[in-house]
Design goal:
The structure is a homodimer. By secondary structure, the first copy, chain A, is of the alpha/beta class. Chain A is built from 16 helices and six strands. In chain A, strands 3-2-1-4 form a four-stranded parallel β-sheet, with helices on both faces. A two-stranded parallel sheet of chain A has the order 5-6. In chain A, helix 2 packs antiparallel against helix 3. Chain A is globular, with a radius of gyration of 20 Å.
Chain lengths: 369, 369
């Protein structure tokens, strides 16, 4: 790891503005509605105010979905029935506009960019006229098998963070005001489960789920792979598995992660640095969020959990980050789909603070009791 | 009740199209995603297909929020700390664009119409330039106190249903393709709890919640009012309370309901008749839905539950209707707010079926196991 490079990404990230959050809470009490009746939207409005450093916060008008794509050497352990080339094929599908995330991004008016940070095979020519953009920034052609060896070198891990940071910075410079880091990578729920287990200290079986919907047999192989990876890392560091929770984020990323999780972490850091909200998706996005939080704890203040994935490890990561998800639609697709669906809820939380009348302004009587 | 009038509203309502739903399920399996990975969106896509009678279903582009407003004689039982004139003041606020529903409707691109179906006091002149529209169709100036006597006459109940039906028909004629019946009415969670108790057969205390956030003392008065209303109705019909579940919808509406619940029922019937989805909100909207379902059971096929309100009776109504809510944001405001927030999820469910590429079209490999 080149600490100087990572330092550049985390420099200047400061916690959310507590005064702006308090101003939002105070304003909620004046608006024409019973106190507390907007539930989670009120808490979200306060958090958005803290991120922006002002109340009312801006209503996000230009969300950008960044789908970070990478492949995984752990696939050779038999952890998924899908062939690795699907990662590259789906990248072409994102660019052509035929994936689920394209349809959902269209509904909420989000820009879609696919970022090849570590795909193993050639990305095919899209079959339809391109709707999405492709950033080609491949750090390496897929990770090594984390059961046998570190998934990537420290330098590659840092570079994957840099790819996400730079891609996000590019979109922010273009005017994006809400970042949605999504993922694509056959095998990446295995790698993410290992990351979540190491960072949260949970048992592998309790954070390893069925991913794309695998059988009991494949699930057993997957739990075994995550367990073996944790044991390998613990043994190489001469630590008990429970002590892996103390390892630096960049070390866990290099040992157990994926290139897309590194890029997601970089994207989170870029959002936090620019005080822009980052909407996290499911397990892989949250695993990247865990790495980012380990690199710069204050960046949690800029994270919003878009949805509760059915993947077991997602809930472990949400609990660890202290995030309550906006939606629970029993999704398990990735790509940023669940996060993108939460965009209108964020917009509403911000718009309520800027657009609602107060009791005084509207001439509405308050309660008498 | 004038049965001929109600017959006109329910005539021609037919169940959803099972063949279109089956076509949607079949199509889901061909799209570029793991089977079942879109969770609730897949079931919702099938239901929208059944409603429209075709797959893919249309993506709703012109949602209309109809906020039906009425007052409640039961307020004299001390069930709310808010004065009755707030109903009229909030109607003016909806028209001025200063209420929560206006901000949320703006985010999702929905039209807002306030419908005075039974406000007790004069609607003040809006203080800002009008953003919403007002339909004035007052059937009577608030209901009678349902603890002492029927809330309204059978004729008034039918007419309230007619107001909702006609208002919805007007908006559908203007091009609305998704109906969102909301509510405003100080005291209406008491009346709705009584409606829900009578139709579902639940105990009053199990369906009576804190509404705007009332104290333990006021809650006790509210449970007592609902219990007394149920007992009055049972005694007047010489039935045990448990047998009220067999009463016709229009009878329960007249005895225990509110003018806005009647109008909501009419709005649901209009949507079902035109095969347009109806997004239900919280307790009051669901109480109207229960009445509609009693009048025409097939109209449940056109209902989507927008969110799970924290009001106790809302969950009882959802269970009775067999609906799984899209969102759970711990809201308890009404106005159609929770339902309106679910609009983008409905749009996504429909857009996925029309816009996603199949594995074959996109050149993406299927799983091998």
């Amino acid at each position: 790891v080149s600490p100087e490079v990572l330092e550049e990404f985390v420099a200047g990230i400061s916690p959310g503005d507590a005064a702006a959050a308090a101003a939002a809470d105070k304003r909620q009490a004046l608006l024409t509605k019973p106190a507390g009746s907007l539930g989670d939207l009120e808490a979200l409005g306060s958090r958005l105010s803290a991120m922006a450093g002002r109340c009312p916060p801006p209503v996000p008008s230009r969300p950008a979905v960044l789908i970070f794509a990478g492949d995984h050497g752990v696939l050779s352990e038999g952890v998924s029935p899908w062939p690795a080339e699907v990662t590259a094929q789906m990248v072409a599908n994102f660019v052509a506009g035929g994936a689920a995330i394209n349809a959902i991004a269209g509904v909420v008016g989000a820009d879609v960019v696919a970022v090849d940070v570590g795909v193993a095979t050639a990305v095919p020519q899209p079959r339809r006229q391109a709707k999405g953009r492709l950033f080609s920034a491949r750090v390496r052609a897929g990770t090594a098998n984390l059961v046998r060896e570190p998934a990537m070198s420290p330098d590659e891990a840092s570079r994957s963070v840099g790819v996400g940071f730079e891609a996000a910075a590019t979109l922010l410079d273009e005017g994006a005001d809400l970042l949605i880091p999504g993922d694509m990578g056959i095998g990446n729920t295995t790698s993410s489960a290992a990351l979540v287990a190491a960072i949260t200290g949970r048992q592998p079986a309790s954070v390893t789920g069925r991913g794309t919907g695998i059988s009991d047999e494949v699930l057993a192989l997957k739990v075994a792979a995550v367990t073996a990876a944790i044991d390998r890392l613990a043994s190489s560091r001469q630590l008990p598995a429970a002590a892996l929770t103390d390892l630096p984020g960049e070390v866990v990323l290099a040992e157990l992660g994926g290139l897309e999780m590194g890029a997601i972490a970089g994207c989170v850091l870029a959002g936090a640095k620019r005080r822009v909200p980052v909407l996290l998706d499911g397990l892989i996005s949250l695993a990247g969020g865990l790495v980012a939080a380990r690199l710069a704890p204050a960046c949690v203040d800029y994270m919003v959990a878009g949805h509760r994935s059915v993947e077991l490890g997602a809930t472990a990561a949400l609990d660890h980050l202290g995030l309550h998800p906006v939606l629970d639609l029993r999704l398990r697709l990735g790509e940023g789909t669940g996060a993108c669906l939460a965009v209108p809820v964020l917009r509403a939380a911000a718009a309520l603070l800027s657009e609602m009348a107060t009791f005084d302004d509207a001439g509405v009587s308050s309660e008498t009791a």
